[in-house]
Amino acid sequence: MDKHLGDDDKAARFEQLAMPHLDAAYNLARWLTRDPHDADDLVQSAYLRAYRFADSYRGGDARAWLLTIVRNTFYTALRDRKPQQGDVSFDEALHGADGDDLLVQDAPNDPAGIAASRDVERSVDQALRRLPPAFREVLVLKEMDELSYKQIAEVADIPIGTVMSRLARARKLLLSYLQRDPAGD
């Protein structure tokens, strides 16, 4: 019976530690996998791994700790995955994006404004997808998850100078993609 109390305590501690960072974990997973369903699976696997090893967490930045687990889970799965024959990817540009309804709520009530807002978001999304993974990763962690250089260095397991260099190169490359092909085609 004491074992169940220990499990309940562990679950409560883990929930307090990890759940506030679920959105950041999903955001990183979505940009790493480039697919919302794969991102869900990745976050679930990462959180299971984090729960399993929660006793090894010794304090510090819980967000960076969890994002590191998400990142490592992704790269481990990528390394272990066998190329799948006949795999067809879903093209959001052709079939629509899941978040289109949110754009309507945030955009002006004018159809031209709605269309322009969707075009800009689609262009940025497509440009981000074209970035090499190492650049996309630091850009997403900095600009979307608002991590510090130190946190990004911890998550990506690279020196802070490399974070700054990759971030500068990612921004420059993203800008060149957007200037060269503003429609995102």
From TrEMBL:
- Please give the PROSITE patterns that the UniProt record associates with this protein: SIGMA70_ECF
Q: Where is the RNA polymerase sigma-70 region domain?
A: 19-82
Record's keyword terms, sorted: DNA-binding, Sigma factor, Transcription, Transcription regulation
One Pfam family from the record: Sigma70_r2
Named from the GO MF annotations, one term is: sigma factor activity
Q: Which residues form the RNA polymerase sigma factor 70 region 4 type domain?
A: 122-174
Family, as annotated: Belongs to the sigma-70 factor family. ECF subfamily.
Protein name per UniProt: RNA polymerase sigma factor
Q: What is the lineage of its organism?
A: Bacteria, Pseudomonadati, Pseudomonadota, Betaproteobacteria, Burkholderiales
